[in-house]
Amino acid sequence: MTTGRMDIDRRIIPLHASESMWMAPDGWPLRRLDWSESSNARGSILFLTGRADHYEKYLEAIGRFVANGWRVTSFDWRGQGGSGRLLPDPTVGHIDDFSCWVDDLAAFWRDWKAQCPGPHVIVAHSMGGHLTLRALAEQRIDPTAIALCAPMLGLRSGVFPTFLLHPIARLMKAIGDPN
Q1: Upstream peptide bond of 119 is cis (omega within 30 degrees of 0)
Q2: Backbone angles phi, psi at 162, to 5 degrees
Q3: How far apart are CA 19 and CA 16, in angstroms?
Q4: Are strands 71-75 and 44-48 parallel, antiparallel or unpaired?
Q5: Domains of the chain, with CATH numbers?
Q6: Which residues are paired to 34 by β-bridges?
Q7: What is the CA angle 157-77-23, rounded to 5?
Q8: Is 0.90 topped by the overall pTM?
Q9: Distant-in-sequence, close-in-space partners of 77: CB < 8 Å, separation ≥ 6
Q10: Comparing 151 with 103, which gets the higher pLDDT?
């Protein structure tokens, strides 16, 4: 297993990586990155970025997975990165409803899973983590495993004000089995 550092220039897509456009069922093009340096990958990772992100921001992290034998795919969410904008202003990332992104993820997942060797793993950051959990809850994806970094989540309670939720959670942990 490789654990060394990969030198990445975020302005250049690495030699063994390829970019393409994937068409969502409604015809919207999503920019896609596929990267593998082995014909005998240990499995496939779908790397999902956060809100207002693009996959170049994560080339170092993706490169570490590739260096350790994984095949990695990422895409820019609809309305972000190289997947075009939903408003006339090219500097604004916008979506009317997150369900559109869940639809895109579910459709992409079906195509990607059919093309890539398993196990099929999702690694997701921030909003990508939120969308992964939502698609899982709706049973629209079925990964072998997931790893989430800072998933965009929050606790909501109609009973207690938000500032009390952490102290209540700590109290519940102190008096009960946190597992």
Answers
A1: yes
A2: -55, -40
A3: 10
A4: parallel
A5: 17-175 (3.40.50.1820)
A6: 18, 73
A7: 135
A8: no
A9: 30, 49, 53, 83, 95, 101, 104, 127
A10: 103
pLDDT at 1 over 50: no
For 35-50, the pLDDT digits (tens) are: 998 888 999 999 999 9
DSSP state of 6: P
95 HSE (CA, 13 A, CB side) = 16
Per-residue pLDDT at 106 exceeds 60: yes
What residues pair up with 16 in beta bridges, in sequence order?
none
Q: What letter represents residue 21's amino acid?
A: M
Say how far apart CA 101 and CA 72 lie, in whole Å. Answer: 20
In terms of Cα–Cα distance, which of 120, 136, 128 is closest to 78? 128
Q: Write the single-letter amino acid at 132.
A: T
The candidate with the shortest Cα–Cα distance to 22, out of 135, 141, 104, 116, is: 104
Which residue stretches of the chain are H helix? 59-67, 98-115, 127-137, 165-175
